Amino acid sequence: MHQYRHFVPNLTIGAPVIQSLRKHTKAYLDCHLMVTNPLDYIEPFSKAGASGFTFHVEVTKENWQEIIKKIKEKGMRPGVALRPGTPIEEVYALVEAEVPVEMVLVMTVEPGFGGQKFMHEMMDKVRALREKYPSLDIEVDGGLGPSTIDAAASAGANCIVAGSSIFGDPNPQEVISVLRKSVQASQCKT
Fold it and tell me: Of the candidates 85, 120, 128, which has an alpha carbon nearest to the alpha carbon of residue 104?
């Protein structure tokens, strides 16, 4: 689930939708918030039933420790995301903190709009994270589908966000299967 406000120009799914979904599923609801003030959203997303809460490193330079602690206090799994232009080193302190994030999301497109082309050069960031943190969950989001999944999985991504490639395909189950098999095969090699 993505929540956009201020950080990117459009708004998609918010806490009320998460609350509605939670009534019908026990699935992990991974919420990626592209907002300038993530502290304001922790409580509503927790109450709505979000499982994971990912915020952007670019807007939390002064208060990321407080954000991570509050996410954990509210029973959610903390994650941090970074845009393509942000150096990967920006997230290292958050992964190594006393109360760390548990997942890093590497954006493989500029955030804000679906259907963009996958940025292969972001795989260097994924490889750097995997080498430095072998057990870290590394998520990629943007332009992922059957033609790009192998690059992401072999670089070390083990969590995949795919929208347009799944929902735009006449056989979404087949696309999901291809994505899942690629990640599983890459994990078996390591």
Answer: 128
Contact 118, 142 (CB under 8 A): yes
> Cα separation of 14 and 53, whole Å?
12
Q: What is the pLDDT of residue 129?
A: 98
pLDDT in tens, 95-117: 999 999 999 999 999 887 777 79
**Integer Cα distance of 65 and 56 in angstroms:** 13
Q: Which residues contact 32 (CB under 8 A, 6 or more apart)?
A: 1, 2, 3, 54, 79, 81, 105, 141, 161
In angstroms, rounded to a whole number, what is the distance separating the alpha carbons of residues 94 and 91?
A: 5
- How far is it, in rounded angstroms, from Cα 97 to Cα 112? 29
Average pLDDT over residues 122-129: 98
Query: In sequence order, what are the residues at sequence separation of 6 or more whose Cβ sits closer than 8 angstroms to the Cβ of residue 7?
Result: 34, 35, 36, 56, 58, 59, 111
Closest Cα to residue 55, out of 31, 22, 23, 84? 31
According to DSSP, residue 158 is labeled: -
81 phi and psi angles, rounded to 5 deg: -115, 155
Query: Phi then psi for 10, rounded to 5 degrees?
Result: -120, 155
Q: What 3-state DSSP class applies to 100? A: coil
Tokens of 125: 């960031």
Whether the Cβ atoms of residue 110 and residue 1 lie closer than 8 Å to each other: no
**The two three-digit tokens of residue 181, written as one number:** 């098999």
